[in-house]
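Sat 14:20. Reprocessing the chain from the morning session after the first attempt stalled halfway. Input below, unchanged.
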Amino acid sequence: MLSLLSGSPPFPPFCQRVHAPYDPQRGVECDAGWPGRNCNEVPLNGAGTYGFGPFNSSSTDSSTCGNDWANDTFKREFVVHDSGSGSWAVTENFDDGHFVTLAAVSPGACETSSHHGSVVTADNKGNFEGFLSGSVSGGTYTPNGCKAATADCTTTSGFILAVFGPAATYSCLTSGGASSFFFDYKGHGHELIYRHWINASDDLGGNRGDIATS
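Finished this time. Tokens:
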């Protein structure tokens, strides 16, 4: 589970990842002088839908037991859709993801509904992709927010702050908030006996599998 905030707190258990329901062939532009940052808002297919990114990002990744099990690098892209009545649907896509395991309890070790391992050794590598989707209420939509000198749109919380302001509430950052997520991890280390882990919200089948060496 990726951290949504700056630094390395655990990814909230009520908000993990999912595959985006939007057209993957979306056009997104960045200022040439700021690759991976300060990207322009780009209108997408459908009225009131906009794309931001990609933003080069990194994060620790926490397991179902709560411990960190890997370090991740990836690209974030945000899709914002005007839902009307002052609310916005926000989907965050995690693309071109790579992870390197720590010596730790495995990500699926505390699952109760699938076969899994218990431990993963350090330096096993793999890939992942996924998304999370929630809603924003309150605040004021600022399409050029990521271009501000103080903006940091490389994190979820930073993007919400830059684009919607400090009064905004994002369901993926609120305990008990409604959200969907789905992340698909595939490990390539020769020591691995479990090589496939899915980290998903209950509406998308829940967690299953593992990345583990024992």
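The longest strand covers residues 68-84.
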